[in-house]
Amino acid sequence: MYPNDGFRELDRQECLRLLAKVPVGRIVHTRQALPAVLPLNFSLDGDGAVLLRTSAASELVRAIDGSVVAFEADEVDAVAHSGWSVVVTGPAAVVTDPVERERLTRTGPRSWVTSPEEVFVRIEPELVTGRALMGGRTLRGLDPSH
Amino acid sequence: MYPNDGFRELDRQECLRLLAKVPVGRIVHTRQALPAVLPLNFSLDGDGAVLLRTSAASELVRAIDGSVVAFEADEVDAVAHSGWSVVVTGPAAVVTDPVERERLTRTGPRSWVTSPEEVFVRIEPELVTGRALMGGRTLRGLDPSH
Fold first, then answer.
1. Which residue from A35, A115, A141 is facing B41, i.e. has the nearest CB?
2. What pLDDT, in 10s, does the model give residues A97-137?
3. B8-136 maps to which CATH number?
4. Assembly ipTM
5. Domain segments of chain B: what residues?
Protein backbone atom coordinates (compact mmCIF):
# COMPACT_ATOMS: atom_id res chain seq x y z
CA MET A 1 0.00 0.00 0.00
CA TYR A 2 1.08 3.52 -0.65
CA PRO A 3 0.76 5.95 2.24
CA ASN A 4 -0.61 9.50 2.05
CA ASP A 5 -2.42 9.01 -1.20
CA GLY A 6 -5.91 9.89 -0.05
CA PHE A 7 -7.34 6.41 0.38
CA ARG A 8 -8.76 5.21 3.61
CA GLU A 9 -6.41 2.63 5.03
CA LEU A 10 -8.14 -0.37 6.57
CA ASP A 11 -7.04 -1.92 9.83
CA ARG A 12 -6.26 -5.61 10.11
CA GLN A 13 -9.65 -6.49 11.50
CA GLU A 14 -11.48 -4.69 8.68
CA CYS A 15 -9.22 -6.36 6.12
CA LEU A 16 -9.95 -9.84 7.44
CA ARG A 17 -13.67 -9.14 7.63
CA LEU A 18 -13.67 -8.11 3.95
CA LEU A 19 -11.50 -11.03 2.88
CA ALA A 20 -13.94 -13.43 4.50
CA LYS A 21 -16.70 -12.12 2.20
CA VAL A 22 -15.18 -13.26 -1.08
CA PRO A 23 -14.42 -16.75 -2.38
CA VAL A 24 -11.61 -15.92 -4.79
CA GLY A 25 -8.39 -13.95 -4.56
CA ARG A 26 -5.14 -13.77 -6.47
CA ILE A 27 -1.81 -15.19 -5.47
CA VAL A 28 1.19 -13.12 -6.48
CA HIS A 29 4.65 -14.65 -6.63
CA THR A 30 7.73 -14.84 -8.76
CA ARG A 31 8.01 -17.38 -11.53
CA GLN A 32 11.14 -17.71 -13.62
CA ALA A 33 12.21 -14.29 -12.37
CA LEU A 34 8.97 -12.70 -13.59
CA PRO A 35 6.01 -11.46 -11.58
CA ALA A 36 3.19 -14.00 -11.70
CA VAL A 37 -0.42 -13.71 -10.60
CA LEU A 38 -3.22 -16.26 -10.59
CA PRO A 39 -6.78 -16.35 -9.23
CA LEU A 40 -7.54 -19.06 -6.69
CA ASN A 41 -10.38 -19.87 -4.38
CA PHE A 42 -9.39 -19.75 -0.71
CA SER A 43 -10.57 -19.63 2.85
CA LEU A 44 -9.31 -17.85 5.93
CA ASP A 45 -7.99 -19.65 8.98
CA GLY A 46 -8.91 -18.41 12.43
CA ASP A 47 -5.75 -16.37 12.74
CA GLY A 48 -6.14 -14.69 9.36
CA ALA A 49 -3.88 -17.06 7.44
CA VAL A 50 -4.93 -17.63 3.83
CA LEU A 51 -5.59 -21.30 3.06
CA LEU A 52 -5.34 -22.74 -0.43
CA ARG A 53 -5.93 -26.30 -1.59
CA THR A 54 -4.21 -27.64 -4.65
CA SER A 55 -2.64 -30.69 -6.21
CA ALA A 56 0.56 -31.83 -4.54
CA ALA A 57 2.13 -32.07 -7.99
CA SER A 58 1.20 -28.58 -9.13
CA GLU A 59 3.79 -26.16 -10.41
CA LEU A 60 2.25 -23.50 -8.21
CA VAL A 61 3.14 -25.42 -5.07
CA ARG A 62 6.74 -25.78 -6.16
CA ALA A 63 6.85 -22.09 -7.01
CA ILE A 64 5.50 -20.78 -3.72
CA ASP A 65 6.39 -23.33 -1.01
CA GLY A 66 8.82 -21.52 1.29
CA SER A 67 8.56 -18.17 -0.52
CA VAL A 68 7.07 -14.89 0.56
CA VAL A 69 3.95 -14.27 -1.49
CA ALA A 70 1.12 -11.78 -1.61
CA PHE A 71 -2.52 -12.76 -1.73
CA GLU A 72 -4.92 -10.09 -2.92
CA ALA A 73 -8.70 -9.85 -3.03
CA ASP A 74 -10.88 -6.92 -3.97
CA GLU A 75 -14.36 -5.76 -4.84
CA VAL A 76 -14.62 -2.77 -7.13
CA ASP A 77 -17.66 -0.95 -8.48
CA ALA A 78 -16.36 0.71 -11.63
CA VAL A 79 -19.50 2.79 -12.03
CA ALA A 80 -19.57 4.19 -8.50
CA HIS A 81 -15.77 4.25 -8.34
CA SER A 82 -15.89 2.58 -4.98
CA GLY A 83 -14.53 -0.61 -3.50
CA TRP A 84 -11.77 -2.15 -1.48
CA SER A 85 -8.59 -4.14 -1.91
CA VAL A 86 -6.86 -6.25 0.73
CA VAL A 87 -3.41 -7.88 0.55
CA VAL A 88 -2.01 -10.54 2.86
CA THR A 89 1.77 -10.83 2.58
CA GLY A 90 3.80 -13.59 4.17
CA PRO A 91 5.59 -16.88 3.66
CA ALA A 92 3.66 -19.67 1.99
CA ALA A 93 4.17 -23.25 3.09
CA VAL A 94 2.61 -26.63 2.41
CA VAL A 95 0.92 -27.93 5.55
CA THR A 96 2.77 -31.11 6.53
CA ASP A 97 1.53 -31.75 10.06
CA PRO A 98 -0.95 -34.68 9.85
CA VAL A 99 -3.21 -33.35 12.60
CA GLU A 100 -3.37 -29.97 10.94
CA ARG A 101 -4.06 -31.55 7.57
CA GLU A 102 -6.88 -33.56 9.04
CA ARG A 103 -8.35 -30.41 10.54
CA LEU A 104 -8.12 -28.55 7.23
CA THR A 105 -9.70 -31.44 5.35
CA ARG A 106 -12.76 -30.82 7.50
CA THR A 107 -12.67 -27.04 7.78
CA GLY A 108 -10.40 -25.72 5.03
CA PRO A 109 -11.15 -24.66 1.48
CA ARG A 110 -12.79 -27.05 -0.95
CA SER A 111 -11.23 -27.68 -4.33
CA TRP A 112 -13.40 -26.70 -7.25
CA VAL A 113 -12.38 -30.03 -8.67
CA THR A 114 -10.57 -32.79 -6.81
CA SER A 115 -7.25 -34.29 -7.78
CA PRO A 116 -5.73 -37.56 -6.54
CA GLU A 117 -3.31 -36.04 -4.07
CA GLU A 118 -4.07 -32.66 -2.62
CA VAL A 119 -2.17 -30.44 -0.25
CA PHE A 120 -3.08 -27.38 1.75
CA VAL A 121 -0.94 -24.28 1.48
CA ARG A 122 -0.96 -21.77 4.28
CA ILE A 123 0.08 -18.13 3.80
CA GLU A 124 1.07 -16.58 7.11
CA PRO A 125 -0.64 -13.22 7.65
CA GLU A 126 2.53 -11.35 8.58
CA LEU A 127 1.37 -8.21 6.85
CA VAL A 128 -2.32 -7.51 6.30
CA THR A 129 -3.04 -4.26 4.51
CA GLY A 130 -6.02 -2.82 2.77
CA ARG A 131 -7.59 0.27 1.40
CA ALA A 132 -11.07 1.43 0.66
CA LEU A 133 -12.25 3.99 -1.81
CA MET A 134 -15.65 5.58 -1.83
CA GLY A 135 -17.70 6.98 -4.66
CA GLY A 136 -19.72 10.16 -4.75
CA ARG A 137 -18.38 13.38 -3.37
CA THR A 138 -15.49 11.64 -1.68
CA LEU A 139 -14.54 9.99 -4.95
CA ARG A 140 -11.04 8.66 -4.98
CA GLY A 141 -9.84 6.82 -8.04
CA LEU A 142 -8.23 3.44 -7.76
CA ASP A 143 -5.12 5.18 -8.94
CA PRO A 144 -2.94 5.05 -5.84
CA SER A 145 -1.50 8.51 -6.37
CA HIS A 146 -4.76 10.16 -5.45
CA MET B 1 0.45 -19.59 -16.55
CA TYR B 2 1.05 -23.21 -15.75
CA PRO B 3 0.98 -25.60 -18.68
CA ASN B 4 -0.81 -28.97 -18.76
CA ASP B 5 -3.06 -28.26 -15.84
CA GLY B 6 -6.38 -28.82 -17.56
CA PHE B 7 -7.34 -25.21 -18.23
CA ARG B 8 -8.01 -23.93 -21.67
CA GLU B 9 -5.20 -21.61 -22.63
CA LEU B 10 -6.30 -18.47 -24.44
CA ASP B 11 -4.48 -17.08 -27.42
CA ARG B 12 -3.27 -13.49 -27.54
CA GLN B 13 -6.28 -12.27 -29.49
CA GLU B 14 -8.75 -13.84 -27.08
CA CYS B 15 -6.82 -12.39 -24.14
CA LEU B 16 -6.93 -8.86 -25.53
CA ARG B 17 -10.61 -9.18 -26.37
CA LEU B 18 -11.39 -10.17 -22.78
CA LEU B 19 -9.13 -7.48 -21.31
CA ALA B 20 -10.98 -4.85 -23.31
CA LYS B 21 -14.22 -5.84 -21.55
CA VAL B 22 -13.20 -4.85 -18.04
CA PRO B 23 -12.33 -1.43 -16.60
CA VAL B 24 -10.10 -2.54 -13.74
CA GLY B 25 -7.10 -4.82 -13.41
CA ARG B 26 -4.28 -5.32 -10.95
CA ILE B 27 -0.69 -4.28 -11.32
CA VAL B 28 1.84 -6.64 -9.82
CA HIS B 29 5.33 -5.48 -9.04
CA THR B 30 8.00 -5.58 -6.39
CA ARG B 31 8.04 -3.04 -3.59
CA GLN B 32 10.75 -3.03 -0.98
CA ALA B 33 11.68 -6.55 -2.05
CA LEU B 34 8.14 -7.81 -1.44
CA PRO B 35 5.46 -8.74 -3.97
CA ALA B 36 2.94 -5.93 -4.31
CA VAL B 37 -0.42 -5.84 -6.04
CA LEU B 38 -2.88 -3.02 -6.53
CA PRO B 39 -6.11 -2.57 -8.50
CA LEU B 40 -6.12 0.19 -11.12
CA ASN B 41 -8.41 1.28 -13.90
CA PHE B 42 -6.79 1.02 -17.31
CA SER B 43 -7.32 0.99 -21.02
CA LEU B 44 -5.73 -0.94 -23.85
CA ASP B 45 -3.71 0.68 -26.60
CA GLY B 46 -4.12 -0.49 -30.17
CA ASP B 47 -1.17 -2.85 -29.93
CA GLY B 48 -2.35 -4.47 -26.69
CA ALA B 49 -0.22 -2.32 -24.37
CA VAL B 50 -1.83 -1.60 -21.01
CA LEU B 51 -2.24 2.11 -20.33
CA LEU B 52 -2.47 3.56 -16.84
CA ARG B 53 -2.88 7.16 -15.76
CA THR B 54 -1.60 8.34 -12.44
CA SER B 55 -0.01 11.23 -10.57
CA ALA B 56 3.53 12.01 -11.65
CA ALA B 57 4.48 12.12 -7.97
CA SER B 58 3.00 8.74 -7.04
CA GLU B 59 5.06 6.09 -5.36
CA LEU B 60 3.66 3.59 -7.83
CA VAL B 61 5.29 5.38 -10.74
CA ARG B 62 8.65 5.38 -9.01
CA ALA B 63 8.22 1.68 -8.20
CA ILE B 64 7.35 0.50 -11.70
CA ASP B 65 8.98 2.92 -14.19
CA GLY B 66 11.58 0.84 -16.02
CA SER B 67 10.64 -2.44 -14.32
CA VAL B 68 9.04 -5.57 -15.69
CA VAL B 69 5.56 -5.83 -14.22
CA ALA B 70 2.49 -8.00 -14.64
CA PHE B 71 -0.99 -6.66 -15.15
CA GLU B 72 -3.83 -9.06 -14.44
CA ALA B 73 -7.57 -8.90 -15.00
CA ASP B 74 -10.17 -11.57 -14.50
CA GLU B 75 -13.84 -12.35 -14.26
CA VAL B 76 -14.83 -15.28 -12.09
CA ASP B 77 -18.22 -16.75 -11.31
CA ALA B 78 -17.68 -18.51 -8.00
CA VAL B 79 -21.06 -20.24 -8.17
CA ALA B 80 -20.65 -21.66 -11.67
CA HIS B 81 -16.91 -22.13 -11.15
CA SER B 82 -16.24 -20.48 -14.47
CA GLY B 83 -14.34 -17.47 -15.66
CA TRP B 84 -11.10 -16.24 -17.14
CA SER B 85 -7.85 -14.58 -16.15
CA VAL B 86 -5.47 -12.69 -18.42
CA VAL B 87 -1.97 -11.44 -17.61
CA VAL B 88 0.11 -8.95 -19.60
CA THR B 89 3.77 -9.06 -18.66
CA GLY B 90 6.35 -6.54 -19.83
CA PRO B 91 8.35 -3.46 -18.99
CA ALA B 92 6.46 -0.46 -17.64
CA ALA B 93 7.53 3.04 -18.60
CA VAL B 94 6.24 6.57 -18.17
CA VAL B 95 5.27 8.01 -21.55
CA THR B 96 7.58 10.98 -22.14
CA ASP B 97 7.07 11.72 -25.84
CA PRO B 98 4.92 14.90 -26.04
CA VAL B 99 3.05 13.79 -29.16
CA GLU B 100 2.25 10.46 -27.59
CA ARG B 101 1.14 12.13 -24.37
CA GLU B 102 -1.14 14.40 -26.29
CA ARG B 103 -2.66 11.41 -28.07
CA LEU B 104 -3.22 9.56 -24.80
CA THR B 105 -4.79 12.62 -23.20
CA ARG B 106 -7.46 12.31 -25.84
CA THR B 107 -7.73 8.54 -26.17
CA GLY B 108 -6.13 7.01 -23.08
CA PRO B 109 -7.61 6.05 -19.71
CA ARG B 110 -9.41 8.64 -17.60
CA SER B 111 -8.41 9.12 -14.00
CA TRP B 112 -11.16 8.40 -11.53
CA VAL B 113 -10.08 11.64 -9.90
CA THR B 114 -7.69 14.15 -11.38
CA SER B 115 -4.45 15.31 -9.82
CA PRO B 116 -2.38 18.38 -10.73
CA GLU B 117 0.27 16.60 -12.74
CA GLU B 118 -0.57 13.31 -14.35
CA VAL B 119 1.47 10.87 -16.36
CA PHE B 120 0.63 7.91 -18.53
CA VAL B 121 2.34 4.61 -17.92
CA ARG B 122 2.56 2.09 -20.70
CA ILE B 123 3.10 -1.63 -20.09
CA GLU B 124 4.51 -3.31 -23.17
CA PRO B 125 2.58 -6.48 -24.04
CA GLU B 126 5.65 -8.67 -24.42
CA LEU B 127 3.88 -11.67 -22.96
CA VAL B 128 0.09 -11.97 -23.08
CA THR B 129 -1.27 -15.12 -21.47
CA GLY B 130 -4.66 -16.22 -20.30
CA ARG B 131 -6.75 -19.12 -19.27
CA ALA B 132 -10.42 -19.90 -19.15
CA LEU B 133 -12.28 -22.31 -16.96
CA MET B 134 -15.78 -23.52 -17.55
CA GLY B 135 -18.41 -24.68 -15.11
CA GLY B 136 -20.70 -27.68 -15.41
CA ARG B 137 -19.44 -31.03 -16.54
CA THR B 138 -16.14 -29.60 -17.67
CA LEU B 139 -15.62 -28.02 -14.29
CA ARG B 140 -12.06 -27.10 -13.63
CA GLY B 141 -11.18 -25.34 -10.41
CA LEU B 142 -9.23 -22.16 -10.44
CA ASP B 143 -6.53 -24.16 -8.79
CA PRO B 144 -3.87 -24.32 -11.50
CA SER B 145 -2.90 -27.88 -10.69
CA HIS B 146 -6.08 -29.27 -12.14
1. A141
2. 999 999 999 999 988 766 788 999 999 999 999 999 876 43
3. 2.30.110.10
4. 0.85
5. 8-136
